[in-house]
């Protein structure tokens, strides 16, 4: 993955606003930073807070837009396998499992060596599936990372970045990632935009373009942010999150993550350099395959 340049704001304001994660370099960046950073880092580790981490890849067979999506071959390998292989490369995860309601998916995953947890068909979304999987595992994890199975090119560094962000922000219950929004995606409601404060906490997510320029047009100079479908939760929070009743903004925008903010919880956001290649439709498969050929990814 390419590595983001630090923004001028993050280098001048120090630990509080250093929210841009440098991919692979996160550890090095912490070590090289001011003493406060290092001391803080040691404190988290000595307290062993949030040190046990599980990555869960929720995968369902039924889908209105793309039936059997997790099993679709991408350059000859099932998409779920590609996601799993990338996830296994993340260094912060103690355990990786696939959570599914479908025996075909389960069988495929066991075939390439993944641990599988069967979850109920009634799970309404990935978050609920993760929560059920966690309960079924019956082990204690401090952090759960929800890795969407439809991003087969997810960089392990992004997974690690999201985990470290949550470990580094004890006041947050949730962490996620954003990347630069491409101008052509500015008005696409399927591309979720995000705004953050100086400390790297989410202010709001929207399907509309935020912030909205006074001129009514897309500002070609504004660094708009696109939300990526990876999130990690404090596991205690995950156990109450699905039970929290839907909130007005969540319902209006149809964005699950707004429930977190509307209930007053804090969400840490990292910025990464990532070309999103989510697979939502059968047409996306061809697109991602040609891109992989171009980049020599096998
Ligand atoms: C809106 O966008 C324009 C560029 O298109 C920019 O010059 C201006 O500063 C932005 N903000 C406002 C309030 O107009
Ligand atoms: C899952 O989806 C349902 C229905 O859209 C929603 O009410 C619920 O809040 C979602 N779960 C979480 C954890 O947000």
From TrEMBL:
Cell inner membrane in keyword set: no
Residues that span the membrane, as ranges: 19-42
A GO-annotated cellular component: cytosol
Pathway: Nucleotide-sugar biosynthesis; CMP-3-deoxy-D-manno-octulosonate biosynthesis; CMP-3-deoxy-D-manno-octulosonate from 3-deoxy-D-manno-octulosonate and CTP: step 1/1
Domain of life of the organism encoding this protein: Eukaryota
Primary location group: membrane
Subcellular compartments: Membrane
UniProt GO molecular function: 3-deoxy-manno-octulosonate cytidylyltransferase activity
EC number: 2.7.7.38
Family from the record: Belongs to the KdsB family.
InterPro entries per record: Cytidylyl_trans, KdsB, Nucleotide-diphossugar_trans
Name of the featured protein: 3-deoxy-manno-octulosonate cytidylyltransferase
UniProt KW keywords: Membrane, Nucleotidyltransferase, Transferase, Transmembrane, Transmembrane helix
Biological process, per Gene Ontology: carbohydrate derivative biosynthetic process; small molecule metabolic process
Catalysis: reaction(s): 3-deoxy-alpha-D-manno-oct-2-ulosonate + CTP = CMP-3-deoxy-beta-D-manno-octulosonate + diphosphate
